[in-house]
Amino acid sequence: MKYQTVESVITNVAHVMNFERTELTGPSRYRNRVRIRHVAMWLARKVTYASFPEIGRAFHRDHTSCLVAIRKVDALVKSHDPMTCRCVEVCLERLGAA
Q1: Tell me, what DSSP letter sits at residue 79?
Q2: Which of 3, 8, 9 is nearest to 37 (CA)?
Q3: Tens digit of pLDDT for each residue in 13-27?
Q4: Cα 70–chain centre separation
Q5: Residue 78 forms part of a structural domain
Q6: In whole angstroms, how far apart are CA 17 and each of 10, 54, 62, 90, 94?
Q7: Can you tell me the distance from the alpha carbon of 28 to that of 87, in angstroms, rounded to the nearest whole number?
Q8: Taking the alpha carbons of 5, 49, 97, 80 in that order, is the dihedral positive or negative?
C-alpha cells in the first residue's frame, strides 16, 4: 500500500532507529548510518509514489545513489540478512505498511 511521503519515511525511520533526521540525509559515510539510509531509501520506494530523483533530492543524493541503495537492500533482504530484515520489519510496522 503506497500512501506515505518520503519525508514521513525519513522521519519515521530516524525515530525507530534512534537517529537524528539529519544523520540519514547528511553526508556521513559511517557504515551503520549508510545501512539505515539505504533501508530508508528502499522503504521510500516501497511505500510512496516517489521517483528515484524525488527520493534522491529528499536524501540530498543523486538518483543513481538511490538506485544502488535500493538494489543493495533488495539483495540483502532476498539473502535474508538478519540485521537488514529486522530493520525493514520494524520500520514497516512503524509505517503501518506491514
Answers
A1: T
A2: 9
A3: 999 899 999 999 999
A4: 8
A5: yes
A6: 11, 23, 24, 9, 11
A7: 19
A8: negative
What tens digit of pLDDT does each residue of 16-71 get?
A: 899 999 999 999 889 889 999 999 999 999 999 999 999 999 999 999 999 999 99
Domain-embedded: residue 12: yes
Answer yes or no: is 56 within a domain: yes
Q: Which of 71, 13, 18 is nearest to 44 (CA)?
A: 13
E strands in the chain: none
**CATH number for the domain that contains residue 21:** 1.10.1750.10
On whether residue 1 sits in a domain, the answer given is no
Structural domain containing residue 84: 6-95
What predicted TM-score, i.e. pTM, was given to this entire model?
0.90
Angle at 50 between CA 90 and CA 92, to 5 degrees: 10
